[in-house]
Write a structure and sequence with these properties.
The structure is a homodimer. With about 725 residues, chain A is an alpha/beta fold. The first copy, chain A, has three domains: about 130 residues, Chitobiase/beta-hexosaminidase domain 2-like (Chitobiase, domain 2); about 325 residues, Alpha-Beta Barrel (TIM Barrel), CATH 3.20.20; about 140 residues, Alpha-glucuronidase, C-terminal domain (Alpha-d-glucuronidase, C-terminal Domain), CATH 3.90.1330. In chain A, the strands form three sheets. Chain A has an eight-stranded parallel beta barrel. In chain A, helix 3 packs parallel to helix 5. The radius of gyration of chain A is 27 Å and the shape is globular. About 5% of the residues of chain A have low confidence. Chains A and B meet through helix 1, helix 3 and helix 21 of A and helix 1, helix 3 and helix 21 of B. Chains A, B: InterPro entries: A-glucoronidase_C_sf (IPR037054), GH (IPR017853), Glyco_hydro_67_aGlcAse (IPR011395), Glyco_hydro_67_aGlcAse_N (IPR005154), Glyco_hydro_67_C (IPR011099), Glyco_hydro_67_cat (IPR011100), Hex-like_dom2 (IPR029018). Chains A, B: Belongs to the glycosyl hydrolase 67 family. Chains A, B: It catalyses: Hydrolysis of (1->2)-alpha-D-(4-O-methyl)glucuronosyl links in the main chain of hardwood xylans.
């Protein structure tokens, strides 16, 4: 037996060598959080008894996709293929499906109906005397979602022997908005070109499209707007609709509907009409016919996203009609087919000299009650434009008769592009948990957008995608977390961003606690760090003109006043900040009275919003006892120090994960530190030139002169060009 | 022992299962011809005795790269790691290096000096009584090239027990020209965005850059022009030169120098001068200082590529200076550092009403002898512009005092973009083997450009790259063959394109003969098929305006006469073709007398060039005995039939290779068939409208009307926009 063991040892060694010699596919981030790499033997052994066989239908495309995913996931994680079975033949079966499609599941009599079609139950059950795990959906899609949830439990090292999970999404439409042009460029894209290879569609359906659908389904995303809101009308030509239909075919098994951004003037541009007036019968007929054509090709088409009368886009106001006239006209064309309209509230006019922060509210609130049932108003989280920090948008809660859809930006247009590590979970959570007070305490933004506050059946959350053709999808490994957290919060806007970060780290990197804890901490602090080194204390919109790269608080090159940083910070010899109190633009009055009263009072306003709502003297005493000027410098400096700390944290984590991703993160953190320092120094140099005050003791002066920072120019900034 | 065996068997099974379960990395083409997947056991066993240990230096970066490549390649192919050794300890050692760096190699006294620094010898030798294989380079780079050659022998299943190979490149500069803009777009690029992530350089050096260098070194390419010839001057700013330097650092160990396309007006654009006159002392000083700055950052910088006085680009003629004045001024700036200038001869002027085919010759031939020693004239293979077929450029052989550099197009601007399977080897070979007759029979184009005909030390071949950010690098698997064949012919322009195709197929797909033979046959016929369905019998330039997609022989929308198809085909009621004989533009006179006489005579002109040199009556009797009109229709039809045959061939090869690449090729062939049919039908419909003749019996009429084909428009064609 000793010889035997020796032979075995040699043999093992040989095979192990062979194993290590398999073509080295580096970890390049392509697999996202669905890596399914082998668990440690210690973990795997805990799950073996509960993963003995798989009982699942394979009649529908969604059932096949679900089965494939479970087989791929479980075989990857556990290192063994799961036998398929028709019936329960042993302990540890996994039974997946719906009551409608499986008599075995029907017999379990699980209470699934209240969870709706996207909901699911995961429960340990006994079948014919055998312990088993049932993953039961309200529909095939619910079962798919449940299967991803089950895989997540294993991926994150959780126990699966006492499961009784009941899940259903709180928000109906969970949608990615792609700002992709048909020429392959992406507005505010920092991860390469568009993943849609329009030219080769509909013939070539790249395998990546399926992986895109898998990733989205794994976090509950059920819709995708394929094209940019500022593109032309070509997407609505028959040639392109056939391409869209091919993508819809790929996505359908994963429960993902396609939507399109449409240009309001399409009837003129491609329809040959002389007008796009929403009340013109020919225009209405054109859109109806176009909708009919679309549904002929794509029976489950989702609907339209519209940016109208905003930043130069055509819209109903070109014909002296209202946003409601425009939205309803499109909604009527889609209604017979079950489609919906997502109408953006991001409108402001340079002709309107009033505070830009107030304009969307002024435009839309009077229209409450005038929109048809299949219209949602898609509203950005804050009143300006996806800044590192803004207060919640005053429209949330202010239009009780209209479903308001949240629009978050996932791509980091204002938060460091691809290379800054900024986890957006805390930003999203901060907004969603904000209390609008519209129906008393607890009227959170989350309750407005999930429809529960006003009892809307239709609800939605949109995320402006950060996905491109880069191998790692999002331009950096950590940017993948922002896609992930968006999806998870769209499913349930009350989840904790920390818990989501931890899930993501475990799935994306490792379950090693020595890695998980510091990385989650680093992620959770990263957004506040960015706020500090970019726009602390309620400042915003200090970035470079047009391309939005780097600091330019001095910039006055933009054609319009409200595109210039000086419009927003209003720094002068006396102080800094935009007075939106009752002595200023009175934007505070757009909030519910209790909120308005708080924001109206400099002393009560949370310091994180201070300079958003008030013009504050440089020597104003902050809660710390220090002056505003001191605090401003301190925050800028803290932001840089935080990034230095992030680098230090990361440097201690070498060896816990693959070298390739480790090195890329390390390089990007070095870029982030360099740019954080630049932001701090440039902003302090500029604001000091206005405040005229010395730096507080102990704070280093800017490394270069203000003149130097002002002299920098940046050609070829990604995500921006004069299309 | 029986129990023991049983345990072993179970164990083997378990491990084998584990092996098969390693995350399924699909074959996505990323590995190119360097896949190094395991050979069949039958093949591997032949090599084991010759791959027992590896003796190689690891002092220089190139030595380390060579060692890494051999270890990666041999372990992948043979499934076993090669032990490193300092001395020969057993039979079957592989000894790699140079006489200068290895006493062991010096002792072998191989005749390597005559092969030059890039050359190498691979020979079976005996060392201390042990049979071994020596891979000896004239320099580290020569040893690297030899190592790739050695790996290729194994990859293609050749014997390695009687090796005595002596190789050195016949052409000195073997260069890829990237038409990549700094904004990530690629002119005439069909494989996604640029692989250069300029924005993240110099900090982030993507691992892909190293794989790019490996692939190029494996086929002997030793230079890369990073940016498009029509870009601006930003690449010469210090910020961008630092990015270029980072790429140069990555490429250096692989023997690849970087070159830049420079804009002649750079002294004005970024230098603040008022002129770019090449004889102006300030301009000359500016370029000298710029060259000094570049070499400070990149000591082995290669030099400049220039497109001047061509298609709107600035140049010396703006200042009434000659091309020689312009090129020499730049050459003088580079000369102290050993850099060279590649000056393009692709010039023509719309002010010049003479035959466009004649203009480059007329412009440059008088300047022969006026260029400084470090200038090459980069000349396209034919006089027009990379058409599916052109006669060789008349400048080849006509400027004996000047090194002429070949420019081939690898990206398939005129040959079906990404999706048509067109192997360019036969096109390159046809040009290279053309006899200019300038110094009598055998004065081939290959001998002109390798410098041997006129005794030039400097020689070069450039290929306009087809590389982009697509995962498979080139937009399709078969397009990789065009990168490959370009490199192999730049190394030795007398190689057979068929032999190269076979090498490539074996390395890229499989050594299975049942696959290799039909695929090589298909590749070898593919270019003639494209000529037939696009532009047979000497026709050219019939493609769509600007974007160059699809047929448009009728098109007159281009602003300039010589950008219009009708300028080239000149079809009328009587016949078709461009009379370049002595009765026409007399372009034939630019060739050596014997060639000119042949081309001048309609009866002697090869039919593949007939309509290039002659306006031929529709009823002209071809060698087949049929009329020209009949032959034209027959060729168009044959092209489509050939593609149908290619599809049929491929459909029989299912199962020989991975499913993912199989399916993509199958899909692309379907696109190719559709588009070949469209080309045939549109061209026949159009030419029939002019010839007024019925289709020959048995030939199907076009599927749609001429009006339909004329009505087609194509937005967002890849590789083209109005930058």
């Amino acid at each position: 037996m000793k010889t035997c063991l020796r032979i075995l040892a040699v043999f093992t060694l040989t095979l192990a060598t062979l194993l290590c010699m398999a073509p080295a596919h580096a970890e390049d981030g392509y697999e996202l959080w669905l890596r399914y790499h082998p668990l440690t033997p210690g973990q795997a052994v805990l799950y073996r008894g509960h993963t003995a066989e798989l009982i699942i239908g394979s009649t529908t495309p969604t059932q096949i996709a679900t089965r494939n995913e479970l087989q791929r996931g479980l075989s990857g994680l556990l290192g063994q293929d799961l036998p398929l079975s028709e019936t329960v033949t042993r302990d540890g079966a996994i039974i997946v499906g719906t009551a409608a499609s499986s008599p075995l599941i029907a017999k379990l009599r699980l209470d699934i109906q209240s969870l709706g079609s996207d909901g699911y139950v995961i429960r340990n059950v006994i079948v014919d005397g055998h312990p088993a795990t049932a993953i039961v959906g309200g529909s095939d899609i619910g079962a798919l979602y449940g299967s991803f949830h089950f895989l997540r439990l294993l991926q994150t090292g959780q126990a699966i022997d006492h499961l009784d999970l009941h899940e259903s999404p709180r928000i109906k439409l969970r949608v990615l908005d792609h700002w992709d042009y048909l020429n392959g460029q992406i507005e505010r894209g920092y991860a390469g070109a568009s993943i849609w290879d329009w030219w080769k569609l509909p013939d070539w359906r790249a395998p990546r499209y399926t992986d895109y659908a898998r990733a989205n389904a794994s976090i509950g995303i059920n819709g995708t707007v394929l094209n940019d809101v500022t593109g032309g009308a070509t997407i609505l030509t028959t040639t392109y609709l056939q391409k869209v239909a091919a993508l819809a075919d790929v996505f359908r098994p994963y429960g993902i509907r396609v939507y399109l951004s449409v240009r309001f003037s399409a009837p003129i541009e491609i329809g040959g009409l002389k007008t796009a007036d929403p009340l013109d019968p020919q225009v209405r007929a054109w859109w109806r016919a176009k909708a009919d054509e679309i549904y002929q090709l794509i029976p489950d088409f989702g609907g339209f996203l519209v940016k109208a009368d905003s930043e130069g886009q055509p819209g109903p106001q070109d014909y002296k009609r209202t946003h409601a006239d425009g939205a309803n006209m499109l909604a009527d064309a889609l209604a017979p087919h079950g489609g919906i309209v997502m109408w953006r509230t991001f409108v402001y006019s340079q002709a309107n000299k009033d505070d830009r922060a107030k304009q969307a509210y002024e435009e839309f609130k009077p229209l409450d009650g005038q929109f048809h049932a299949n219209v949602l108003l898609q509203t950005k989280n804050g009143p300006i434009d996806f800044q590192p920090r803004e207060p919640f948008h005053p429209l949330f809660g202010a239009m009780p008769k209209t479903p308001l859809m949240m629009e978050f930006e996932i791509t980091k247009e204002y938060l460091g592009f691809a290379t800054h590590l900024v986890y957006l979970g805390p930003l999203y959570e901060e907004v969603l948990s904000s209390d609008t007070m519209e129906r008393g305490m607890g009227s959170t933004v989350a309750k407005v957008i999930d429809g529960s506050l006003e009892g809307h059946a239709l609800s939605g959350m949109a995320g402006d995608a950060n996905i491109g053709a880069d191998r790692n999808w999002c331009g950096s490994d950590f940017n993948q977390a922002n896609w992930y957290v968006f999806g998870r919060l769209a499913w349930n806007p009350t989840l904790s961003s920390r818990a989501i970060a931890e899930e993501w780290v475990r799935m994306t990197f490792t379950n090693n606690e020595a890695f998980v804890k510091p990385v989650v901490d680093m992620m959770m602090g990263s957004r506040e760090a960015a706020v500090d080194y970019m726009t602390p204390l309620g400042l915003l919109h200090l970035m470079g003109p047009g391309h939005h790269y780097g600091p330019a608080p001095w910039d006055a090159s933009e054609s319009e006043a409200d595109w210039r940083p000086v419009y927003y910070h209003r720094a002068d010899r006396q102080g800094i900040g935009f007075d939106r109190s009752s002595t200023g633009s009175n934007a505070v009055a757009q909030y519910a009275p209790a909120i308005a009263a708080q924001f109206n009072d400099m002393a009560q306003t949370p310091e994180r919003f201070l300079l958003y709502f008030h013009h504050v003297p440089w020597d104003y005493r902050m809660r710390s006892g220090q002056t505003l000027w001191y605090e401003l410098v301190a925050h800028y400096t803290q932001g840089v120090d935080d990034v230095k700390q992030m680098r230090a944290t990361w440097s201690h984590l070498h060896g816990y994960i693959d070298e390739e991703r480790y090195q890329q993160v390390a390089t990007f953190l070095a870029i982030q530190e360099k740019e954080a320092q630049w932001w701090r120094d440039a902003c302090i140099a500029y604001f000091q030139s206005i405040s005229g005050r010395p730096l507080p003791p102990g704070y280093a002066p800017p490394q270069r002169s203000l003149k130097y920072y002002e002299s920098l120019t940046f050609p070829y900034v990604p995500g921006y060009s004069s299309w």
